Amino acid sequence: MNKLHYYQALVVLLLSTSCIYSSLTAANENNLTSASLVSQAEQFILNELDPQGDKDIEITAMPIDERVHIPACESGITFSASQESLSQSNISVKAECQNSDWYVFMLVKAIEIQPVVVMSSAVSPGTLLTDNNVHVIYMDKKRLRSSTFADIEQVIGARIKRRVSSGRPVESKNLCYVCKGDRVVISAGTETMQVKTSGIALEDGNMGETILVENRRSSKKVYAKVASTGRVEIAI
């Protein structure tokens, strides 16, 4: 190869490398811009749905197609969503730049979640709930159809009335802090004086519920409020 052909080949190689590098750089910049746009859209929806910051909301924006060119916008990209869309789980968000009349629609998924105590394993009726068989996860609030618990301490010591499979929420209707046939402590009195005796629960009861109990000494039946596991109170 003579020197002329050698330099011609070198120039072509340098130009090709430069084009490839420019394409990669442009692609990387576009990816960074896309990521920024996604993040801004998520923050916009969070601000719209939870202006006070007192809810647990899980927000995920769908990625933007790599073929979409996002132009530079001196005025800054603005975001908008209709009230109807904001009431749904999948929200359509419009991102637009007024300077260039450019806009793109993005899909943002928003779910209000809450802590829920669930079973760590399947349990049979009569099982005592402990730290070993329950734990807390976050669940979509709309999926919950009954009263649940947010804190393990709220259910420790209670017993399951029906079989519950692993991963299912612990529901108040399926618990008894005092179960029919349990021996209980019956407390009665005021802040300055307390009288206690033993009794038998004649009904199932959850925390705060009033159930019928029998005084073991006198065989008298009275209504008392469930105060804790194995303890009921009579108001005087």
Describe the structure.
With 236 residues, this protein is of the alpha+beta class. It has three domains: 3-112, no CATH class; 114-176, Type Iii Antifreeze Protein Isoform Hplc 12 (Alpha-Beta Complex), CATH 3.90.1210.10; 183-235, SH3 type barrels. It has helices spanning 3-49, 83-86; strands at 56-61, 78-80, 90-97, 102-119, 134-140, 159-160, 175-176, 183-189, 194-201, 210-215, 221-228, 231-235. Strands 1, 2, 3, 4 and 5 form a five-stranded antiparallel sheet that branches. The N and C termini lie far apart (111 Å). Mean pLDDT is 84; it is low at 1-29.
SSE inventory with pairings:
Blueprint: H1 3-49, E1 56-61, E2 78-80, H2 83-86, E3 90-97, E4 102-119, E5 134-140, E6 159-160, E7 175-176, E8 183-189, E9 194-201, E10 210-215, E11 221-228, E12 231-235
Parallel strand pairs: 8-12
Antiparallel strand pairs: 1-4, 2-3, 3-4, 4-5, 6-7, 8-9, 9-10, 10-11, 11-12
- Low-pLDDT parts are 1-29
Backbone shape: elongated
Q: Helical stretch count?
A: 2
Helix content: 10-25%
Number of strands: 12
Which structural class do the helices and strands define? alpha+beta
> Average pLDDT value?
84
Element-by-element helix/strand order: HEEHEEEEEEEEEE
What is the number of independent domains?
3
Sheet having the most strands? 5 strands, antiparallel
Tell me the span between the first and last alpha carbons. 111 Å
Rg on CA atoms, Å:
32 Å
